[in-house]
Specification:
Elements (H helix, E strand, L loop, with lengths): L3 E12 L2 E12 L3 E5 L6 H8 L7 E6 L2 E2 L8 H5 L2 E4 L11 H11 L5 H14 L15 H13 L5 E5 L7 H18 L2 E5 L3 H6 L3 E6 L2 E5 L2 H6 L1
């Protein structure tokens, strides 16, 4: 494993005046894959929001993809997000645009101008998720699993060093969930993109085992035994 792609030391996160997470000490190496688990409302999403600049680091030290969270200004959050890929549970695709136009929008918004390079990158990312022939489709013409594949393709567009996935299989049936997890693990292993996946689906962790971080009692701890997690 390489240098940490995420490093938070003695961190704290607030939502308004409410302390959500405290004593955060987390490292994730470049190219590593890990799960983030915990009960609903435990702070999983808040931790991800910290990592992509939606919430500030209120205490301690933090660094994500070589960007210092302590000195990150709101006006510079876009520089952090360009180095990340973010996968949401509810897809957040533009419903009035084709798959191609959805992906083109992201590239142009992040500084791409050459139409040939844009087309080449979109083709490559759609190929990575097995949907190269679906670029003309509208989101509503795709299944839930296909839409999530497009979201993963979108996350890959700018060659991210780290993908943050918040319940990426939450709206999918078990078979499709397995397909999406297989795809994410393939991206991690073949492209080398680091992955942090927030999930409540322990069956996926059993099928695709990796390092486990658990949000409990307002902090984040290392967990290894899935049977203990299930019993708790």
């Amino acid at each position: 494993m390489g240098e940490p792609i995420i490093k938070v030391s003695n961190g704290a996160v607030y939502q308004g005046q409410t302390l959500v997470l405290d004593r955060i000490n987390v490292e994730l190496a470049a190219g590593e894959m890990a799960y983030l688990i915990g009960k609903t409302g435990s702070g999983k999403s808040s931790f991800l929001k910290l990592l992509y600049g939606e919430l500030p680091l209120d205490k301690g030290e933090g660094n994500v993809v070589n960007i210092d969270l302590n000195t990150l200004k709101q006006s510079k959050v876009h520089t952090l997000r360009r180095k990340l890929g973010i996968v949401f549970q509810d897809f957040q695709l533009l419903t009035d645009r084709t798959v191609y136009k959805n992906l083109e929008f992201v590239l142009r918004a992040t500084g791409w101008t050459d139409s040939k390079l844009i087309q080449s990158r979109i083709d490559e990312c759609l190929g990575n998720v097995g949907l190269k022939t679906k670029d003309f489709k509208m989101p509503h013409e795709l299944s839930g699993g296909e839409q999530q594949r497009i979201v993963i393709a979108r996350a890959l567009l700018n060659h991210p060093e780290l993908i943050l996935a918040d319940e990426p299989t939450g709206n999918l049936d078990p078979e499709t969930s397995d397909e999406i997890m297989s795809l994410l693990r393939k991206i991690n292993r073949e492209i080398g993109t680091a992955l942090l996946i927030a999930t409540h689906d322990y069956s996926l962790i059993e099928k695709f085992p990796s390092r486990i971080l658990k949000v409990v009692n307002g902090s984040i701890v290392e967990s290894e035994d899935i049977s203990i997690l299930q019993s708790n």
